[in-house]
């Protein structure tokens, strides 16, 4: 049973956060191990599994990036680490940004930091805008392989940007 089935919601890149939270709380009560202490060992183990599934499902489905990765894995689109290709021009752009970050480490300049941060934010917005319509209108029953490939590419690019944002955050206190 996948997480979407467990929560009885359609496979999607966007979920109703309030419904997800309500279902999580309902399941938390329903599958709380303390309510099953007098049951058989088998029943207690089953409830513990369901409680764990509930927590894992919520943590994944409640986070956009984790949810996106999960859907891509469910659809069999996401290859093994290192087997996915990203356009060379994007990789070169990431290399230039990373070189700029290394220079900032040695010689911090607030104007350069702000400019780099703004450029990365714009790039993040740009790559999202390329798939926003697909993500917003995703229907698992009618999704095309091409749509999933576009979302996969977005996901891979976003992972690079997340690492850069993490590196940028180190300068926040500089």
List the helices and strands and how they pair.
Elements: H1 3-6, H2 17-30, H3 41-61, H4 64-74, H5 88-106, H6 110-129, H7 132-136, H8 145-169
Helix pairs in contact: 2-3, 4-8, 5-6, 5-8, 6-8
Q: SSE string, helix = H, strand = E?
A: HHHHHHHH
Radius of gyration: 21 Å
CATH architecture of the largest domain: Up-down Bundle
Using the coordinates above, name the CATH class of the largest domain. Answer: Mainly Alpha
The total count of helices amounts to: 8
**Poorly predicted parts:** none
User: What global shape is seen?
Assistant: elongated
Calculate the terminal CA-CA distance, rounded to whole Å.
47 Å
What is the CATH topology descriptor of the largest domain?
Monooxygenase
Q: What helical percentage do the residues reach? A: 55-70%
Mean pLDDT: 92
Number of domains: 2
State the secondary-structure class: mainly alpha
- How many E strands? 0
Main sheet: strands, sense, barrel: none
- β-strand percent reads under 5%
Outline the structure in words.
68% of the residues lie in helices and 0% in strands. The chain starts with a helix and ends in a 5-residue tail after the last helix. 13% of the residues are buried. The protein folds into 2 domains: 60 residues, DnaJ domain (Helix Hairpins, Orthogonal Bundle), CATH 1.10.287.110; 82 residues, Monooxygenase. The model has no long low-confidence stretch (mean pLDDT 92). It is built from 8 helices and no strands. The chain has 174 residues and is mainly alpha-helical. The longest helix is centred in the C-terminal third of the chain and has 25 residues.
